[in-house]
Write the structure tokens for this entry.
Amino acid sequence: MLPEIARQIVPGIAGGVAGCAVLLAFAAQPPAQVAGVARRFDPTLLVRVLYGGVTEEILLRWCVMTLLLYVASRRARRGGMPGAAAVALAIAGSALLFGLGHLPTVVAYGGTLEPDVVAWVVGGNALFGSVAGLLFWRFGLESAMLAHALAHVFAGWVR
């Protein structure tokens, strides 16, 4: 067990750095309709790490991405390992759903779902969701969880 977890740490840290870069890049250029929402939405670092790093990764990677991969691979071939197209579809689909899942927060904090807001929220989150999906596929769930949690920790230090 220990060698398996150790194999996931370096990719998880690299994914955390990439996720931090995505967070900071998108936070630097929010659409005007979101600027006020971003100031009001300020969960604690512990919430970001535990909900984002653990809950979202279990829901979106372990559950949704696995389901999408299962469905895509069953349609593509009978038996055997899923092909690259099935994996790519599962990563993209779970990343898109991850991005869409952040839209209710914008509305809950008084934002509007204008096209540029939707593109910003979904695009930024789907970009990181793709990184997390790739980590999950290549290294395991713990790697994606570590990357997600560290993205929030690193971004919190930089801000």
In short: The mean pLDDT is 90. Residues 2-40+61-158 form one domain.
